[in-house]
Design a protein that fits this description.
Helices cover about 30% and strands about 25% of the residues. The chain is of the alpha+beta class. Strands 1-2-3-6-7 form a five-stranded antiparallel beta sheet, covered by helices on one side. A hairpin with a 4-residue loop joins strand 1 and strand 2. The longest helix is centred in the N-terminal third of the chain and has 12 residues. It starts with a helix and ends with a strand.
């Protein structure tokens, strides 16, 4: 059974351009994989680790927000194309929207290069 961390990362990393994720390993505290940006180009890959327990995965509101941002083309790589205050989300009140963006902005997934955590995936405004 696919776990919450995998489902979340598929949407999160997909919003950042991932075409496919190869899952490598997982334990109760972390999940490892490789993001594939271009299936035909072996150089278009990035290893990653997300230090997150299942119970800490952001809720469905964050997944819905990521899906909305992606569908409406509101991301420029990892940056919002408009301020949060200008992004209107149907059927979401201001307080829920702000809390959901705050939770999204806290997500940090470490990139791995040469066996070391180097940079991070994240979304910002």
């Amino acid at each position: 059974m696919e776990e919450k961390r995998q489902r979340f990362l598929e949407v999160f990393l997909g919003s950042l351009g991932a075409k496919l994720i190869q899952w490598q390993a997982k334990d109760e505290n972390s999940i490892f994989g490789t993001v594939i940006y271009d299936i035909s180009d072996m150089d278009e890959r990035q290893d990653f680790v997300w230090h997150m327990r299942e119970e800490g995965v952001p809720n469905q509101n964050v997944i819905d927000l990521l899906t909305y941002l992606t569908q409406k083309h509101l991301l420029d790589i990892d940056e919002l194309k408009a301020p949060v205050t200008e992004i209107e989300i149907p059927n979401v009140d201001k307080e829920t929207k702000e809390k959901t963006f705050d939770e999204l902005f806290k997500v940090k997934v470490s990139m791995i290069d040469g066996g070391r955590e180097t940079d991070r995936y994240f979304i910002h405004d």
